[in-house]
Structures are given as structure tokens and as C-alpha cells.
Specification:
Elements lengths: L1 H23 L5 H36 L3 H19 L2 H7 L2 H14 L2 H5 L3 H15 L2 H10 L8 H8 L1 H20 L1 H22 L7 H5 L6 H4 L4 H4 L4 H9 L1 H39 L11
Length: about 300
């Protein structure tokens, strides 16, 4: 009697593992889930480095193109304007394409959009490239969160979400010094090319390894087979539906919708203003040093 009782949980676990593997076409294991999470975080690091590279190459780029600090500020403003508009494309992209191809297309845009600037460095090329980069990076944050959460149940998404939120810090610590070194040693073109190559490396890894996880809306709606046996061992709190009614009531209120839109608009404006002030401050310091320097100290400007 005891032997039969002991064998039942083991047999049940084997059946759950078999159903989970057959339903998704691949084994769903913690190691695989965290491997996919690392792949998504890698892309977010590259994403943030593409945003920040303009601040690293700003001075040598401005010297070559003879740009003023106001023109650099204009380039930054246009990038964040298209970045804001591109964020609204996340929903249509997720509905029309799978996460695999949507993120692959965005990464391809990031990797090739700045190549024309490397070949033909003009102010118009810089503006066009940064605007297209903003359109490409706008939908990325929402899609990256969706891709990562597809591998983690709702009750265990805190740690993956924190790791993804920390990806910009990783880019500042790891990639910013590397890009600065490359810019100093080989020029700003080498920095842009290195970022493009890093994006291409990620695309190869993405095509080779990525598979959409079982915890997605598509799985729940039946467009993909959900791991039903795995859901039987979840707790009741994890399977409890989210309280959508209160959220719908809030969004039905016009005043709250208006307040929400104004809050987001103010956040975007102040974030862009702080970044532009940072970039303009660098050029103001450089300009003040140039005014103090003598004619012999300005030879570098003619090189």
C-alpha cells in the first residue's frame, strides 16, 4: 500500500514532464528559462548602448561635421520624439508577428541604421539615422518584457523583471567604457561599427536558441498548446484571475485618462530635457575651454 502511494507522485511527475515537453515541443526547465532570460537581457544591454553612444562620440563627431551644441541637442530631441512614437507600435507588432521575428526585425534595424553615417558622415545622415533608430527602439521595451515573462509564471516574475530593469546599468558599467576606449583609439566610426557587430552576434544567437515560453497570452488563448499538467501543480493564488474590473473602471474615467496622459507627457519632456542639458553641458564646457585657449592650442580643431 505504501509502495503504491509512493509511486503515484513519481508517475504523476513523469506524466507532467512528458506533457510539458510534448505541448511546447521542447523541455521547459529552469535552466532553459534563465538562458532565454539572459538572451533577452543581452538585447536590452545592446539597446541601451545604442541610445547612449551619441553622448560618447559627440565631441569627435561634432568636430568632423562642424556641429554646434544646439544641433547635437536637436539630434537628441528628434531621437526621443520618434522613440516615443515608436513605442505605440509594440502592440501591432506583437499581434502581427511572433516575438521571435518582431525582436529580430528590431535588432536588424538597430544594427544597420547607423551604417550610412559611417559611410557618408553628414548632418542629414545623422538626423535620419537617429530618427530611424528611435522608431526601431521604441517598441523594444514592451516586447522584451513580454518575451522574458513568457518563460516565468506570474508569481515568479519579480527577479527576472529586476534583472531586465538593471540592464541599462550593465550597459553603463560594461559597454560605456569599452565604447569610450574604442572611440579614443580608432575613432567614432569604429564605435558604431562595433555596436552593429554586437547586434548581429545577438541576432545569430537569437535565431539559434530562442523559443517562446509557455506563459504567454497565445498559450492561454489556445494558439499554442499550454502545459496543462504543469498548471495542475500551481497554487490557487497563482491561478487566480487578475482583477481586471477595477482597471477597466479606472480607464473608463475620462479625468483619470487625461491625468495619466499628462503625467506620461511630462515625464517624457523632463527626461528628454535632462538628457539634452547633459549633452549641451559637455559642449559648453568645451567651448569655454576653447575661448580660454590660445591660437596654438586650437591646432586640434584643424585636424
Amino acid at each position: 500500500m505504501t509502495t503504491g502511494t509512493a509511486r503515484e507522485p513519481s508517475a504523476s511527475a513523469d506524466r507532467q514532464s512528458a506533457v510539458r515537453t510534448q505541448s511546447s515541443g521542447f523541455p521547459v526547465t529552469p535552466g532553459r528559462a534563465w538562458g532565454m532570460t539572459g538572451l533577452v537581457i543581452f538585447l536590452y544591454v545592446v539597446n541601451y548602448a545604442d541610445k547612449a553612444v551619441l553622448g560618447i562620440i559627440a565631441q569627435p563627431l561634432a568636430r568632423e561635421l562642424d556641429m554646434s551644441s544646439s544641433q547635437i541637442g536637436l539630434v537628441g530631441s528628434l531621437f526621443y520624439a520618434t522613440y516615443t512614437v515608436g513605442g505605440f507600435l509594440a502592440g501591432p507588432l506583437e499581434k502581427r508577428f511572433t516575438l521571435r521575428w518582431a525582436l529580430l526585425a528590431l535588432a536588424l534595424v538597430w544594427s544597420v541604421v547607423m551604417f550610412p553615417l559611417v559611410v557618408s558622415a553628414t548632418f542629414v545622415t545623422l538626423v535620419a539615422g537617429r530618427m530611424l533608430l528611435g522608431f526601431g527602439e521604441g517598441p523594444s521595451a514592451a516586447l522584451l518584457h513580454t518575451a522574458m515573462y513568457s518563460w516565468h509564471p506570474r508569481a515568479k516574475r519579480g527577479l527576472p523583471g529586476a534583472l531586465l530593469a538593471g540592464a541599462p546599468s550593465v550597459a553603463k558599467i560594461a559597454l560605456a567604457p569599452a565604447l569610450t576606449f574604442i572611440t579614443v583609439q580608432w575613432g567614432w566610426r569604429a564605435a558604431l561599427v562595433s555596436l552593429s557587430l554586437l547586434g548581429l552576434v545577438w541576432m545569430v544567437l537569437w535565431l539559434a536558441w530562442w523559443k517562446e515560453g509557455p506563459y504567454t497570452g497565445r498559450v492561454a488563448q489556445g494558439t499554442d498548446t499550454a502545459p496543462r499538467a504543469h498548471r495542475t501543480v500551481r497554487t490557487l493564488a497563482q491561478d487566480r484571475p487578475e482583477p481586471h474590473l477595477r482597471q477597466l473602471r479606472l480607464h473608463d474615467n475620462r479625468r483619470l485618462r487625461t491625468l495619466d496622459c499628462c503625467t506620461h507627457l511630462v515625464a517624457v519632456v523632463f527626461r528628454g530635457r535632462s538628457r539634452l542639458q547633459c549633452i549641451a553641458g559637455r559642449f559648453d564646457v568645451r567651448a569655454s575651454l576653447d575661448r580660454r585657449a590660445g591660437p596654438d592650442d586650437r591646432v586640434w580643431q584643424r585636424d
